[in-house]
Design a protein that fits this description.
With about 250 residues, this protein is mainly beta. The protein contains 3 helices and 14 strands.
Length: about 250
């Protein structure tokens, strides 16, 4: 499909340009980063997110636990409760897909010029019947980051999600640039793309803006808003993410 290949080429070109050109990392953005939680420390996010389409609104609220288990190794567990309010379907609430993951950074900026990490993530069946997926899936991504002094940073990458139903497999990629506006405030912009999956959802491309405010060393406020620029009615008229981050 020439048109789809062209879109992928454009997205890939933007990603390469961002990584070569001029730090929030990971949340609140959809794209992740290669920096693991510091060894022996915790990062705990209490979050809410959601997406509105022509069919209605769906999202999750929950807790995202991250622990620095060893040098360059982060262990992650996400416990979400999902909700949906679809046209003609009423409001539904249930347990979402529990996520288990491990991030391992195997290249460092000091030695290689960029940080590089893998972050495989497994999604367990939700069991709710109406919220989330009722089968196992696995995301296999790679993430890259380059910092430019203390103010500018860029990170991104992507990977593919493999489902128990092969026809539902899809891939995604994204790139983020962040800037330290004030000592306690960072902002950033993101370009993100996901291929179509088998549930009738077409490919999507979106742009988003995120921010992080450090109340102090232990408490942080994160926010993010995103808008689709490709097939927006079906995939993302608008979406959001809000979180209180506890670090210790």
């Amino acid at each position: 499909m020439p048109e789809r290949r062209a879109r992928w080429s454009i997205a890939a070109g933007v990603l390469v340009a961002l990584l070569a050109g001029p730090a929030i990392a990971g949340p609140p953005f959809v794209s992740d980063d290669p920096e693991p939680t510091d060894t022996g420390h915790f990062e705990i996010y209490t979050f809410n997110n959601g997406t509105n389409t022509s069919s209605g609104t769906a999202g999750e609220s929950g807790i995202d636990f991250n622990y620095g288990a060893a040098r360059d190794l982060q262990l992650t567990a996400t416990l979400p409760a999902g909700y949906s309010d679809m046209a003609g379907g009423g409001t539904r609430v249930g347990l979402g897909n529990i996520e288990l993951a491990a991030k391992y950074r195997f290249l460092h900026q000091d030695d290689f010029g960029v940080d590089v990490a893998i972050f495989p993530r497994i999604f367990l069946p939700s069991g709710s019947g109406t919220i989330g997926d009722n089968h196992v899936s696995l995301l296999l991504p790679i993430w890259i980051q380059k910092d430019f002094g203390k103010q500018w940073s860029t990170f991104g990458g992507g990977g593919c999600t493999f489902n128990a139903i092969p026809a539902a497999n899809f891939c995604q990629m994204g790139a983020v640039v962040t800037y330290q506006v004030l000592p306690k405030l960072q902002i950033g912009g993101e370009l993100f793309h996901q291929t179509a999956d088998s549930r009738g959802t077409p490919a999507s491309t979106s742009v988003g803006i995120g921010w992080r405010y450090d109340v102090n060393d232990n408490y942080h406020l994160l926010g993010y808003v995103r808008r689709g620029i490709e097939n927006a009615d079906e995939t993302n008229r608008y979406s959001w993410y809000a979180s209180v981050l506890f670090t210790f």
